[in-house]
């Protein structure tokens, strides 16, 4: 398990490997940053499906044709040279994209990474395993093969004696154990590993950040949508804020998922803050009401109108090892966006909305592609993969709480400690 001491030791070891050539990434003759300036960075995309409005389309197309950035149209110095697509349902775009942009669709992940040759032939791997028809387990988790795709890439790295940076879209895995193994594999082979969703890096309204090193008293996130795709987004958005607190992320002490009237009772009992809910609601621009005329934020911040609007409330109660209490409230019917609020030890409140521009362009995905590009160009992940690992693990164990009768679970296995970068990376 990734303790703070182990993380700091790993970080030091990674630096040493970069100087001495100790890791597969460091030993790379063709994959290090030094030779990339002379030619485009060659990437393989490994995905479940490439259809209209799929994650592969939103992200893959930005590598192919560019994306808006800082008031200009930006064309990344990246060339998609190969693709593996696991399923080709009606509306598949993979063959069309390959024909239009001159890359090859291969029948296996290993062939895509080697571009049909006998050795690894790309500078980076982008794994996008969202959408498609896959089994669903008893916890309601779609068993997307992110872990299996990642392991196929690791197998190529091990066989060919060279590793390249990897990006994994959204969850690492539905399983906290598999997510942990993925992080450990990236550390063992010493290659840059970035993961996660667009919410931590999209624009914010207002454009505020938790001060790096701030002392936090409590934090609350409001999200909408179903489990497990949308609660994951909300958990990771909250994680990118609270990880900046003094001492960094210390790991998770316990989790509990509450449903129905138990959510409102928990608020009455002080298990989550009504004042923070009010602050988060105040940042929403999609307030709902019993009628369009009566969408009143002051009515939503108490138990008058709120239970009538939210038929199936869900609360994720997450206690950190340093004592910080954090809560995710999924409140379908009250709002239609994602907002966050925290109270600092000083008493100051900070709140914001994670802005999600609408379809079809969903330009928040361009903010994420910009971070992937940054890793591919520099050879360094701009923020720790442990952010995503933590969000994955919290969601998995909260769903264990749900299927176990909504009990509180001690989580010593989630002792995931890490330090967030001081630099703010949101807003493109």
Per-chain topology:
Blueprint: H1 4-20, H2 24-27, E1 41-47, H3 55-65, E2 67-69, E3 72-74, E4 78-85, H4 94-101, E5 104-105, H5 109-114, E6 124-128, H6 146-160, E7 166-169, H7 176-189, E8 193-196, E9 204-205, E10 216-223, H8 229-242, E11 252-259, H9 261-268, H10 274-281, H11 297-300, H12 306-309, E12 314-320, E13 325-330, E14 338-344, E15 349-354, H13 364-378, H14 386-403, E16 409-410
Parallel strand pairs: 1-4, 1-6, 4-5, 6-7, 7-8, 10-13
Antiparallel strand pairs: 2-3, 9-15, 10-14, 11-12, 11-16, 12-13, 14-15
Task: Give an overview of the whole structure.
- Helix 6 links the parallel strand 6 and strand 7.
- With 428 residues, the chain is of the alpha/beta class.
- It has 14 helices and 16 strands.
- The N terminus is likely disordered.
- The protein is globular, with a radius of gyration of 21 Å.
- 34% of the residues lie in helices and 19% in strands.
- Helix 7 packs antiparallel against helix 14.
